[in-house]
Amino acid sequence: MTIDDAPREALRGGPRELLRWVATGAAVSRADLSRLSGLSPSTVSQRVEALINQGLLEETGAGRSRGGRRPRQLAVPTGGAVVGAIDLGAHHARVGTLDLSGRVVQGRTLPVRIEDGPEAVLGALLAEVAALAAAPDDPAASSATGSPTSGAAVGALRGIGIGIPGPVQHATGRIVSPSRMPGWNGFDVAAFCAGRVDVPIIVDNDANLMALGAHRTAYSELDHAVYIKAGTGIGSGVISSGRLHRGAQGSAGDISHCRVVADPAPLCSCGNAGCLEAVASGAALVTALRDQGVPVSDLTGVIRLIDDGDRHATALARQAGRAIGEILAVVVNFFNPQVVAIGGRLADCEPLLASMRATLYERCLPLATQTLLIERVATGQDVGITGAAHLVIDHVVAAN
Ligand SMILES: [Zn+2]
Predict the structure, then answer these.
(1) DSSP secondary structure, 212-224, as one string
(2) What is the model's pLDDT at position 14?
(3) Three-class secondary structure of residue 157 per DSSP
(4) Which helix (H) or strand (E) holds 374?
């Protein structure tokens, strides 16, 4: 074991990891878990019994015998929705229920007006999660009306994970100085939700949730990764030594207000000029096109123009890609990840991705890019709620 391996080795065989091995199909028996973890059969049995008692694992009959008593097979219960998740964006929210393996049972996208303020927005989304939890087998189930939250339905959940498109102080779940979220500054999301539903509430930044969701579903073999979320806003989440890295307060990976070379340097919502968000976010592209006299109302319109080959929109997308690449080059040289993956609505924008990639190769140390993967996050619209569910599952396992 090298010194670099130490952090992962320290986690080896913990209840979270045992659960994950069963959830991913890497292990179906106690013997598999013992072999993977290097732990003794009796230690594994003890931990498995605890997970079974907590309802996090179940036994599903007998496996194949190699002589002697046939071993009992282990599985993660999939009989119903057990975790709630909300991935809030500037204009839409993805809400869902997921099982303990992180599989989406039900997912739904709802329009959101973030400027309506936290009570109205979160109240309606919690009601939606309650409606999904109350009817786990009915895909058409929906409250959609913001009806009062059903305590009974939500009580069946192990917890609700919530992603916020702004900075979240990790220890308190409080939002601190978000851009384009009037009325949300200082709001205590966890306390508000805990007052409405009687289950654990875990709050995090949306880019962190994307990082965790992508890492657990598509990149779990890679220990060091940077995930960029490029939509209306822009941010990133960092996986270091296999774990989500939040830093001291929870702001690690927030690249939105790093300064880039831009002339003229547009004024940012934070009051500085030339921030990455003011140059390269979806909101910045909408503003820049409008300033050029192009009648575009939202990011969907911008993406349509780029897909149609509009030269103004395409030039702006290339400029945005270069700006993201400039900041990421610093991150990659400093952090040396194995993969840089971009998600969010701008990730499908080919000119942006090409410029980002070119800038990274131009500006990074050859050793840093020699084996670096630069690609799209391929996990689709559920990546945020998947990350939210994994946060809750990790919390439930750690608390027991
Ligand atoms: Zn700024």
Answers:
(1) HHHHHHH-TT-SS
(2) 85
(3) coil
(4) strand 373-376
Given the DSSP bridges, would you call strands 168-169 and 92-98 parallel, antiparallel or unpaired?
unpaired
Phi, psi of 275 (to 5 degrees): -65, 150
What does the DSSP 8-state code read for residue 195?
Answer: H
Q: Residue count of the chain, please give it.
A: 400
Average pLDDT, the chain: 88
Report the pLDDT averaged over residues 15-19: 86
CA of 280 to the centre of ligand 1 (A): 11
- The DSSP output letter for 272 is -
Ligand 1 centroid to Cα of residue 274, in Å, is: 7
Confidence of residue 146 (pLDDT cuts 50, 70, 90): very low
Q: How far is the CA of 236 from the centre of ligand 1 (A)?
A: 15
Give residue 178 CA to ligand 1 midpoint distance, Å: 10
pLDDT at 228: 97
Q: Is the pLDDT reported for residue 70 higher than 80? A: no
Residues linked to residue 40 through DSSP beta bridges, in sequence order: none
In which band, very low, low, confident or very high, does the pLDDT at 62 lie, cut at 50, 70 and 90? low
User: Could you give the CA distance from residue 306 to residue 84 in angstroms, rounded to a whole number?
Assistant: 35
Structure tokens at 219: 């990149």
Question: pLDDT of 327-340, one tens digit each?
Answer: 999 999 999 999 99
The reported pTM is 0.86
Cis peptide leading into residue 264 (ω within 30°)? yes
Domains, the chain, in order of start with CATH, read: 3-75 (1.10.10.10), 83-211+383-399 (3.30.420.40), 218-380 (3.30.420.40)
**Cα(204) to centroid(ligand 1), Å:** 20
CA angle 117, 199, 229 (to 5 degrees): 50
Distances (CA, A) of 142 to 110, 124, 129, 135: 11, 11, 9, 9
CA nearest neighbour of 169 among 155, 189, 149, 153: 189
Among 17, 388, 383, residue whose Cα is nearest residue 214: 383
Q: What span, in angstroms and rounded, lies between the C-alpha atoms of 333 and 197?
A: 44
Question: Do strands 174-175 and 168-169 pair parallel, antiparallel, or not at all (unpaired)?
Answer: antiparallel
Take residue 278 and report the two structure tokens written for it.
Answer: 């003011």
Contacts of 393 (CB under 8 A, 6+ apart): 19, 83, 100, 102, 158
**201-220 confidence digits (pLDDT tens):** 999 999 999 999 999 999 98
